[in-house]
Amino acid sequence: MPSAAPRARRGTTQARRVGQHEAGRPGAVWALPAALYFVLFALLPLGFAVWLSFTSYNGIRLAPPRFIGLENWTRLVADPVVLGSVGTTLTLVVVAVATQVPLGLLTGVWAAGPQRFRAVIGALYFIPLLMSTAAVSVLWSSLIDPNFGLPNALPFLFGDGNLLGDKGSALGVVAFIYLWGATPLYTLIFQGAARTIPLSLYQAAQLDGAGIVRQFFSITLPQLRNTIITVSILIVVGTFTAFDIILILTRGGPDNGTAILPFLMYEQAFVSFDLGYGSAIAVVLVVLAAVVSTVMVKITGYADMAGTQEGI
Amino acid sequence: MKIFRTPARGAAGLTVAALSIAALAGCAPASSDGPNENRPEGEIHVAVYGDAAASVEQAAADRFNEDSEIKVVIDSIPGDSNYGSAVRTSLGTDNAPDIFMSWGAADIEQLVDAGALLPLDEFIAEDPALRDSFIPTVFDEQVIDDEAYGIPMRGTAPTFLFYNEQVLADAGLEPAQSLDELLDQTEVLAADGVTPVALAGADVWPTQMWFQYLFARQLGNEAVADGLSGDADVWESEGSRTALTELRDLVDAGTFGTSFDSVGYSNQGTTALLSQGRAAYELMGTWNYATLAAADADFAENDLGWVAFPELTGGAGAPGDIAGNLANYYNVAADTRYPEAVAGFLAELYSDDFQNDQLAIGNLPPTTNAGELVAANQDLDARTKEYLDFVIGLVEDAPSFQLSWDRAVPTESTTRLLDAISGYTNGSLDADQWVEQMQSLTATD
């Protein structure tokens, strides 16, 4: 492209310093396809959802959306189901991060090591990654059936097996299935990251007499700091948009105990055909996810992405 | 990732979006006045609910296409809860189906208000059999403001008790004829280690069937219909309270076991319980025969029994009143390009061929001559005939037929209804809260 070269030459001081990386890149033009895609499929629908949230619309084109001002929003702030759903969503996010990060980290670090049979066990462990979440949900709905599933085989663990009949245990089941299905991906990421940690660090620590636990906390963990942050953000975003397992397994029940915001949005928009109210819930979801992610980025210093290997 | 955008960029994006929406909004909505000439030429598109019964509709289309220049094209849409939204969002576009399926009046009310449906009265004036072939109460469900909008199709689906003959025989019991008897049997069956009644509480709509019958028996179907259309007094009446108490008694006595909220119908949970002899009864619709036969043909052949829902002593409901799904209906888009050909295809719905195909898959057509067709049909096996005769008797003898509640309340109230049903059954709502919830969700503005 003709405009490419001059643009590259107008780079900042910092860009010139990394001149090799900038060479031949036309800057903003290269970002155009992605930017267009983003505008068309992310921003435009988002703007449309914001607009719909101020309308009454039942999904029939022949009866176009009717502007009703703040009606959906005044209803939303007083709706105990939505308020409960915000709590449920945040609970699931916290539980997901608190379980998936440690498990992914430990298994990832283990899988990065040289143990025997590691590849075989690792391959088995990654099986959930190959399955669609819908298939996983159907599979688990049979596995946790109180009469024919695991609860029936292990009554000392599950009692009468009414796992989906109680808010706490139903949310626990959902969190567990996400843990089972999603962690292998994070294991893979941690495995890759752990392998980039220079062996010389461990050798030096060994010379200083550090044991394996001390090595983990003083070398592995700090070295994986950026990966932990990345994985945490992936989990947060993933959980905020989680939907499939809940639709298939619990349908938001019992008593809306697992009705996280994406499910509630779906239910209002496509079961009750109240697309205006569903859009208002969607906007709440976007804002909530944006706030949580921004806070995470600020607190963790993710935006700076400082290296962990200075001086090595 | 969009969540990392700076506010300034986000605002720019929103401006673009808003402009685009303004441009979109400027497009005139498709008109519903008269045939839409932009629809596919020479074709009528039928959006078929893609489950086991879809093959019968395909066969009807094939028969119609033999003699028609305008061809019927069957578009199978996955048979799940997204069918309604797929049809609804396409209406008014050039690609909308000409013919599609619905479940009752509440289902189509918003479509009628929006002018998206074609009144079928002119078709009926030309071909009165489009109305007269069907059971009047079923046909009248989709007559709104004196105009007919739907032609009944597929099967009439009342609910009743299915039971495992072997389990009852082992316990020395006969099928319960009264609710008290059912409660007495609960103790005996539970002592045998059997779940007295399999209930798929995880799906909620099966739980609703128990409400429907207890309210039918205590209040009568007419009062229930009044309540569902907004008469708040019905829900706090004495009969309503008694029905709620009876339901509570059943739950507390362990009639449904303790883990029914985790048992599903869609994952075959109750099907396995009943067919494997781990439960004695299940309250379900006519389609359960096909489901059970598919899961365990031997059980359906030898050990499956069926009986009407038990009667109560007292209560304002008429004996023999039933509840369930009246039928499905075919509706027609207001801007269909070939109305005459559509009328011709709808006539297939009362043809003997179409009805016999329905019988073969265990559906009882909602027509006035279904009984004669069952008797005359040589292809049906004795067991299926016996079953269909029972359903015909149940429907014919019923003074009234209560439409499933989730098909009777306005669409926007469906989820709140199911929340109320499951909430009361699992104890998170007491009777007062349930009554309040029902009054609120059925209230007409």
UniProtKB/TrEMBL annotation, chain A:
* Membrane topology category: Multi-pass membrane protein
State a GO cellular component annotated for this protein.
Answer: plasma membrane
Q: Tell me, which GO biological process terms does this entry list?
A: transmembrane transport
Where in the numbering of this chain does the ABC transmembrane type-1 domain appear?
86-296
Record-linked Gene3D superfamilies: MetI-like
Mind telling me which residue stretches traverse the membrane in this protein?
34-54, 90-112, 119-140, 170-190, 228-249, 269-292
| Pfam families given in the database record | BPD_transp_1 (PF00528)
Location in the cell reads: Cell membrane
Enumerate the UniProt keywords alphabetically: Cell membrane, Membrane, Transmembrane, Transmembrane helix, Transport
Q: Where is this region: Disordered?
A: 1-20
Q: Which InterPro entries match?
A: ABC_transporter_permease, MetI-like, MetI-like_sf
Q: Which family does it belong to?
A: Belongs to the binding-protein-dependent transport system permease family.
Full protein name: ABC transporter
Q: Which organism is it from?
A: Arenivirga flava
TrEMBL record, chain B:
Q: Which SUPFAM superfamilies match?
A: Periplasmic binding protein-like II (SSF53850)
Signal sequence extent? 1-25
* Record keywords: Signal
Q: Name one Pfam family in it.
A: SBP_bac_1
InterPro entries with a match to the protein in the record: Bact_solute-bd_prot1, SBP
PANTHER family per record: ARABINOSE-BINDING PROTEIN-RELATED (PTHR43649), BLR3389 PROTEIN (PTHR43649:SF14)
Q: What is this protein called?
A: Sugar-binding protein
Give the organism the record lists.
Arenivirga flava
